[in-house]
Amino acid sequence: MKLKKALTVANIVNQKIERLPFEGEFYEAFSQPQNRGVWFVWGGSGSGKSTFIMQLAKEIAKHESVHYNPLEEETDDAEFIERTELVQMVDVEDKFKAQTYPMEEFDAFLSKQRSAKVGIIDSGVYFFKNFEEYLQFKRKHRNKILIITGHAQGSQPRSELEKSIMYDAKMKIFVSGYLASCKGRTIGPNGGQFIIWKEGYEKVNGTNSE
């Protein structure tokens, strides 16, 4: 077995790192994360998680091609259509596509040349049978950004699979009360806080900007 060459300090520090050129509110919350690796986003029902995922997809689609793989709903569901319109995904229509694929088909899709740089898996428990399957998928697509959603029990992921994915992910984002809080490795100047819907956030938290 041929071993990989061990890297010197110069080899390590001279490697080129490509980052997502986030600006504005996304930069303030998440800085400029590396353009590969796993994001895990979890939250309860009615927390604003689905809207945040679409907002995140739009921001990334300004720079990279994104494929949204909805597994808990269909692309012709009223809620999915309305969310697409609400976030004005038409602004990035050349870089954004959506279709539901089971794991084997999505694996094949992402393996194609010139396939989407970013794959959104909504949600992880509908897609992976176990953590080992997740690890194999992640390793195979190590140069992609994989955004995986999960459910919450309190402030923690609900299932053991979701907890394991959260611990492994580079970017960990908990959504509650229309606020996305980053607990990952790249946090922006404002401490990793992104308000998804201002009016809803203020109502939940009893604040008023006036």
Structure explained in plain terms:
Helix content is 35%, strand content 21%. Strands 1, 2, 3, 4, 5, 6, 7, 8 and 9 form a nine-stranded mixed β-sheet that branches. The chain has helices at residues 9-13, 24-30, 49-61, 78-86, 103-111, 124-127, 131-140, 160-168, 198-205; strands at 37-43, 66-70, 96-98, 118-122, 145-153, 156-157, 171-176, 179-182, 193-195. It has a single domain, classed as Rossmann fold (3-Layer(aba) Sandwich). The model has no long low-confidence stretch (mean pLDDT 94). The chain is built from nine helices and nine strands. The relative contact order is 0.20. With 210 residues, it is an alpha/beta fold.
Any low-confidence stretches, pLDDT <50, length ≥5? none
- Average residue pLDDT: 94
Helical amount: 25-40%
Work out the number of β strands. Answer: 9
CATH class: Alpha Beta
The CATH topology comes to Rossmann fold
The major sheet is characterized as: 9 strands, mixed
CATH architecture: 3-Layer(aba) Sandwich
Structural class determined from secondary elements: alpha/beta
Please tell me how large the radius of gyration is: 17 Å
InterPro entries: P-loop_NTPase
Pfam family, one: Rad17
Protein name: AAA+ ATPase domain-containing protein
